[in-house]
Amino acid sequence: MKRLFNILLYLLLAIFASGLAVSGVVYFLLRASVPDYDEDFSVAGIEGPVDILRDAAAIPHISADSAADAYFALGFVHAQDRLGQLLRARRAAQALLPLDQTIEVEPSTAQALDAYAAGVNAWLGLVSEGGRGRGSPDLLIADERMIAAWRPVDSLRLVQAFLNDLQPERRQSDLSGLSDRPLLPELFVTSPKVSLDAWALPGDRTASGAPILAADIRGPLSLPSEWYLADIQLPTGAAIGATMPGVPFIVVGRSERVAWAFRSLSLTALKEPVSPTAAKAGNFLMMLDRLARSADVNDAMDASMNLAPAGLEILAIGREIFARWPDREVETPLSFRDARLAALDVRQPIFSVEGAIAAQRDTVSTAARALLPIMAKELWFVGSAGALKENRADELRGDILGQLAQWNGDMDRFSPEPLVFWAWARALQKRILQDEFPSATTVWARPNADILFAVLSDRGGSAIWCDIRPSTRIETCQDQVRAALDDAIGWLVDRYGPDPSDWVWGEAHALNMGWAPIRSSGIISDLLSLEAPSSGDPYTLIATLFSSDNDRPFAASAGTNFQAVMSFSEEAGSYFIAPAGQSGHPLSRFYENLFLMWMQGKYLTMSTDLSLARGGAVGTSRLSPVSVDTPTIQNDRSR
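User: That's the sequence. What structure does it adopt?
Assistant: Structure tokens below.
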């Protein structure tokens, strides 16, 4: 017996020691892949030395004597901080563009693409030499044993995929049993994966007298962030703002003379759907290249108007003027978000930069303000007559209706009213549409305020949708509203208990940012994700989109993922924020360092002045040229 005990003991100790050794090796490899921002490198592919200053938030400020060297360094830092993200994006976009297809772009754009690819490959070469833990933690669990060299066509693919994500998706195929009831166009178009928004104020509307440009991007909320902040000190002047890892230009940002941003147009504003092509991707890259080198706003518009993809509106400001292309505002259907921005614009004739930031972070839902009076108008009247005091269920319903009557539509994460409203709206949409499309759960499971408003306001006779087709009687919308409220209350009581004070919006509406590796890694991604209670909804100015998860229908894994407010006034600078850090490495202290700022509505002050960036800088790195080719990239592949 003692012998058996000793054997088992030694076996357990061996297993423990083996596990400890494996954990140590894994931790060593993970730590080895965390970039050292003070490390200098000798690389092939640049003409002169390049300095990379990392400010307090690890944002790189790149100084070079030529544009090619600057874009080389941008590719280098993208790979250094986001190698896994680059490879994941390339894998996702590979089917869009054949490798042998040639796209004609301007010489300066072609040079930038070549230099950027060389910068990415320079980092791949350094990783191949060893001692850097494969360069990214997700490469330790992915099957990427050999990494293909980055090519300019990879950047073109990523831009084409980005333009494709800006297009709303049609889903007629989901609705095979198409109803013969009045047309609801909102049924057949889903929101695009990525949406750009921007608005500008002329100098006579600002406290400083200089124009203000505010920009938002909506898309996936992931770790690392979809956007990477950078400052590129070009020979024509510095450009600073949001870059897309894999692409060598500032997408939304400013130079020393011009600030620019984009606004997506809705599908209904276009005569026909847009199909992004490789040529359009090349035009988009040339436009970004020209914007960064523009001498003034007029030059920016002249240089870009023939290159802008259909469906995108360009907004640009300078020190005194702002302009847009097309040169007149495109007429689009007024969305709930547009209505809220218009209301803020009327209420506040003069804006400061702080006021523009407050507008960007606004969490009042015009959708709730428009729908709730229609949904509750008769119930509020009945409640005021005291007819809902017969039993506990009726008393609870009356208390809830009383709370909603005093609510201003603010989707505050600490309030119960947003949760009650959206649970009610979700139950109502299910009652209206499930009988028509029983198998198309995506149509009725996720609440759509546009559909509900069209039906409840009887647009074009759409109220007939409230009738349940299989039943013999004709149900009205008020019948469905009453029943949906009881459905919602039952769902809330089952999930959160019978006390409405315990029904908190932020508990149901959590912002979830999951780690997005090259390949799905299950529990590891869950461990590395971030989650926090969030205000807002899909129709607030800072948007948080609902998921399609039936267990967590109001959780948000997509929404606003970048914001900027830019001005050229003496008193105000430019402010940028993304919801995560610069690094894609979970062990880096810059992996999630911006998340708390994002949740608190704080912005980073960014400047092209290197003396300001040096304050609190976390590192300075220098790239020095070498004349020999690195032996670690062979046959276009890196080990």
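Residues 21-29, 383-389, 630-635 have pLDDT under 50 and may be disordered.
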